[in-house]
Amino acid sequence: MVCKAFEVSRSSYYDYRRRRSVVDAERVVLRADVSRIFRKSRSSAGSRMITSMLNDEGVKIGRFKVRRLMSELGLICKQPGPHAYKQATVERPDIPNRLNREFSVSRPDQAWCGDITYVWAGQRWSYLAVVLDLYARRIVGWALSDRPDAELVVKALVHAYEQRGKPTGVLFHTDQGSQYASRLFRQRLWRYRMEQSMSRRGNCWDNAPMERVFRSLKSEWIPSLGYRSIPDARKDIGDYLMDYYNRQRPHTFNDGMPPVVAEEKLKILSGIS
């Protein structure tokens, strides 16, 4: 009677019931893959990122299907809304804004950005300094300390300098933080033959790539209650910056490729040794 009322043949109805009782093994595997990547990202990966990471693993799947599987699994990514930045025009006369928002550069180690943020660890605030290469948005140096002083940013700079093979002629851009304007930091830049650039006062857009790194770190990775100790924070943040962010996480700027993969590919295409 129901089939007749809805003008559906009885054979179609029984075929539908039969297909519902059969387990779709391929879909089960895909659901497991989506769930695995979502957990690995600490609930931060959306359908676009999961699709890109699965494709990198050799799994052929589209974003629409990933979105459906996420809905079936009840997976909702955590991403903060847009942030309203203040506008300002005041520059330091001795350290002008030489980068001037030219965030797309033609080669590695041409322009780096640096900044400091805070992390709750061991029942107190700790401070994280990071150095970013603008070429493929790769993290090239970082340091963590319980004091937000000039030594912290120098340690991050030294880490980047050593890891990248001691490059010269780098343009190093930061905000107008006192640590970056200190004599200790500026002397280290001079020793490394690097040129300094500073954002205009109160203008976060002038250092937008670094702001984006910290936004991703805090929204995707750092536990909501912080870390039990500084060693725990150092290990976990290091895993994110140098492994997950650099080598696994798709980056929009790189057309969905992780920074390390994009840097190597761009270097080959550009003939950079």
UniProtKB/TrEMBL annotation:
InterPro entries: HTH-like_dom, Integrase_cat-core, RNaseH-like_sf, RNaseH_sf, Transpos_IS3, Transposase_IS3/IS150/IS904. Pfam families: HTH_21, rve. GO terms for biological process: DNA integration. Gene3D superfamilies: Ribonuclease H-like superfamily/Ribonuclease H. Signal peptide: none annotated. GO terms for molecular function: nucleic acid binding. Residues 104-266 form the Integrase catalytic domain. NCBIfam families: transpos_IS3. This is Putative transposase. It comes from Halomonas korlensis. The lineage of its organism: Bacteria, Pseudomonadati, Pseudomonadota, Gammaproteobacteria, Oceanospirillales.
